[in-house]
Amino acid sequence: MKPGKTYKYRICNAGLKNTLNFRIQGHTMKLVEMEGSHVVQNVYESLDVHVGQCFSVLVTSNQAPKDYYMVASTRFSKQVLTAKGIIRYTNGKGPASPELPEAPVGWAWSLNQFRSFRWNLTASAARPNPQGSYHYGSINITRTIKLVNSASREGGKLRYALNGVSHVNPETPLKIAEYYGIADKVFKYDTIQDSPQADIAHAKIVSQPNVLNLTFRNFVEIIFENHEKSMQSYHLDGYSFFAVAVEPGTWTPEKRKHYNLLDAVSRTTVQVFPKSWAAILLTFDNAGMWNIRSEMWERAYLGQQLYASVLSPARSLRDEYNIPDNTLLCGLVKDLPKPKPYSI
User: What element of type H or E holds 55?
Assistant: First the structure.
């Protein structure tokens, strides 16, 4: 880096399991963007980056010209793994100090950091649809879905679940079955309850396709509740959502009083700390079949995921494209004639 210059760094956790803490020796980082959204430009000495999350920061080369370490270390794991990289000043005059900056301890620090993240309302342009509006806090919630993760060994095999259902992919792909009008022969909608029983985290796990039937353009509240001792991180395909709260304990409707209904960041992943919950708000205005999954890939592979089916009743090309002509067909639809295409 050239002395006196400011550089933008993009930090992404593309790992499979562990939260990372990222810091730069002797430097601070000004957070400017998070998963596609401009944020209030707070300054941090280190950042916890949970699985699947990406941050953009500005770093100014305002220290003595020499080498400095970039450090990434795992968080919330029994064994701490550390990786280092070098930032080198132009015409630097010395090696990096062997004394690495320490990572924070405990997840309360990480929770407080989450609370400091705010959408930059002076930079993110408003859009006419509720999903992108600054006024998401004034939209009436039409459906609340609470998803509780659990783990169990069924028949000696480890499975992970949401609301007691461990997702398995059927022979006929879900969206293709739906497009061809034979969904009822492949899976059932809403096999899980929106408000599961209190002991669902300890209930027997059932392995089957897990598909929610979401009404097109409804404004929905999703609660991720974690009764386990491990960290969780969730991603939703096809949408950005407003991460309005992350708190310890269990969720109740009274907890809505704690939501950030003004400037929560519009993003695509949210972390859930041990024995805690997270709440997101979004409008399901993108027709299709969308995956909601744990970003811990062991968990997603072994069933901690589900699909949100969002059907447009108009069957219009304004809402959804036709299936591509070169789509490979299998299962029950392999020999079926193509259905009538969507139209304008």
Answer: strand 54-60
